[in-house]
């Protein structure tokens, strides 16, 4: 298959987990891929593996996001697909610790909102004019089912992901006349480094965070495949959609 032959694709957070898998699948289907991550070594490793370009970026800094978009678009003079995937959740270090709002230090609140929400907004801000000028494009934002159903003790993360859902809808509405589609995926639990500590802890305690009808968390490729579907021409009439990819968790 080469659904993305001739398409230029930029994936943030492409150095790990779902982002890395998304880069692999786009490359396998013919895209010219730019792998962006603040972990420059991880971005380089994925890029080398799939014959892509690597870009070092901290998505919470607008100046760096602007440079990232320009670098991704520069060789071909276009940028067809942006996947705003970079995000932070749980970390043992405590900086991004998931906690109730009363237990969330201001520094953690600011950091989580700046990366997870402002990062998405800045990516859109700088890619939309390019997509409009070239006559269209597709953006896929990665939120979380935390934006759709309340999970205990992840308040800043939840607020940031809820913001992505709302932002997706307004951008889809405003930019549809320019031929730009903006959609959002809300993954449930996915087997990536982000939640490895949580998964380990739950397994040790023989309990689950929430019931999943399909009986397991997702593999990264199961999210990535839906990202490609929304970015592809198969979804030419789909915009403003908030798609849970969660094994049925939010269907209950
Ligand atoms: P991951 O930790 O494996 O990957 C996240 C990547 O984003 C890492 O490579 C990291 O270096 C990068 N990143 C983080 N902050 C960045 C920044 N400021 N600038 C640039 N890059 C940055 O986790 P993942 O599960 O692949 O997460 C991908 C997305 O999916 C995130 O937005 C996450 O919130 C979301 N998500 C994950 C799960 C899950 O269970 N794993 C569930 C729902 C949503």
From TrEMBL:
Organism superkingdom: Bacteria
- Which PANTHER family does the record associate with it? DEHYDROGENASES, SHORT CHAIN, OXIDOREDUCTASE UCPA
Please verify whether the record's keywords include Oxidoreductase.
Answer: yes
Species whose genome carries this gene? Sphingobium soli
Family under the similarity heading: Belongs to the short-chain dehydrogenases/reductases (SDR) family.
What would be one Pfam family of this protein?
Answer: adh_short_C2
What InterPro entries does the record tag this protein with? NAD(P)-bd_dom_sf, Sc_DH/Rdtase_CS, SDR_fam
Gene3D superfamilies per UniProt = NAD(P)-binding Rossmann-like Domain
Q: What is this protein called?
A: SDR family oxidoreductase
Instruction: List the keywords (alphabetical).
Output: Oxidoreductase
């Amino acid at each position: 298959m080469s659904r993305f032959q001739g398409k230029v694709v930029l994936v943030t957070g492409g150095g790990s987990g779902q982002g890395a898998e998304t880069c692999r699948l786009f490359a396998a289907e013919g895209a010219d891929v730019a792998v962006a991550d603040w972990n420059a070594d991880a971005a380089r490793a994925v890029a080398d593996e799939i014959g892509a370009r690597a870009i070092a970026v901290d998505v919470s800094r607008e100046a760096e996001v602007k440079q990232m978009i320009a670098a991704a678009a520069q060789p071909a003079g276009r940028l067809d697909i942006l996947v705003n995937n970079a995000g932070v959740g749980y970390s043992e270090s405590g900086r991004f610790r998931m906690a109730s709002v009363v237990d969330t230090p201001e520094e953690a609140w600011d950091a989580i909102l700046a990366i997870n929400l402002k990062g998405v907004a800045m990516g859109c801000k700088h890619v939309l004019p390019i997509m409009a000028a070239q006559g269209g494009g597709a953006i896929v934002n990665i939120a979380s089912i935390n934006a759709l159903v309340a999970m205990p003790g992840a308040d800043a993360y939840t607020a940031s992901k809820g913001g992505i859902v709302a932002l997706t809808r307004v951008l889809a509405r405003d930019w549809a006349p320019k031929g730009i589609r903006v959609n959002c995926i809300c993954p449930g639990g996915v087997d990536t480094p982000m939640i490895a500590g949580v998964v380990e802890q739950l397994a040790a305690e023989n309990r689950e965070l929430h019931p999943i009808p399909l009986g397991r968390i997702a593999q990264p490729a199961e999210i990535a495949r839906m990202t490609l579907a929304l970015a592809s021409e198969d979804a030419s009439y789909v915009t403003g959609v908030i798609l849970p990819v969660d094994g049925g968790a939010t269907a209950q």
